[in-house]
């Protein structure tokens, strides 16, 4: 490489890297706290949608912030919230007790999600309401409660089989261990995509909710940064591409979530 070409290479490649490195070194460290340990949010060591979210926000900050992820049990997170400033993604006010919508700051939703009924198309029946589960074998996830369905399980109208997690639920469903399962929409879309199960399963909405950031901080600059970008994420092609890697999109309109038609 002659001197001219070397200088061009240095200017185009190395100097931007030096600027980037200095920006990261000088960035303020911000932790994203999460108790969501299952796919698509966590898919392996330092991998998953939550880690991609941290990288996305770091890049959008232009060197002002370095976002990191800390995963912990829900009880530990609740304890820390008493006296710790926190940024918590993927949550909704209903999960944090009465008055949470006013007690904490919340962003615009960053993902529409929910729980779904899921079944094999060859079952020759569909499921979209609790009444349609009467007499069916229902697969659930151990420890999960299901709106309007738990009383029917308790009365014996529905028989329930528990699985350890979302992946096992879909695997057992495909093996015909039960007729219909209830699983998180986001996890199911990710597992269907990664295991090529999309054509093997049908689903419809059981219960919908919106995932946002919970902000517990007096740092108005940080608050404004996250609020602005949460609002823009739904129309950001970069964010849409990230979600697409997990079989998701910025919005799953609840009126058209069903794949049963």
Provide a quick synopsis of the model.
By secondary structure, this protein is of the alpha/beta class. It contains nine helices and nine strands.
Structural commentary:
This protein is of the alpha/beta class. Helices cover 36% and strands 23% of the residues. The chain has nine helices and nine strands. The protein has helices at residues 3-25, 49-60, 74-81, 100-103, 150-154, 166-174, 185-195, 220-232, 237-244; strands at 28-34, 65-71, 86-91, 105-106, 111-119, 137-141, 159-163, 180-184, 202-216. Strands 3, 4, 5, 6, 7, 8 and 9 form a seven-stranded mixed beta sheet that branches. Strands 1-2 form a two-stranded parallel sheet. Mean pLDDT is 88; it is low at 14-23 and 253-261.
List keywords for this structure.
261 residues; alpha/beta; seven-stranded mixed β-sheet; two-stranded parallel ribbon; 36% helix; 23% strand; disordered C terminus
Element layout with pairings:
Layout: H1 3-25, E1 28-34, H2 49-60, E2 65-71, H3 74-81, E3 86-91, H4 100-103, E4 105-106, E5 111-119, E6 137-141, H5 150-154, E7 159-163, H6 166-174, E8 180-184, H7 185-195, E9 202-216, H8 220-232, H9 237-244
Parallel strand pairs: 1-2, 6-7, 6-8
Antiparallel strand pairs: 3-9, 4-9, 5-8, 5-9
- Tell me the helix content: 25-40%
Radius of gyration: 22 Å
Residue ranges: pLDDT <50 for 5 or more in a row? 14-23, 253-261
Overall residue-averaged pLDDT value:
88
Strand runs, count: 9
Q: What is the global morphology?
A: globular
Q: Alpha-carbon distance between the termini?
A: 62 Å
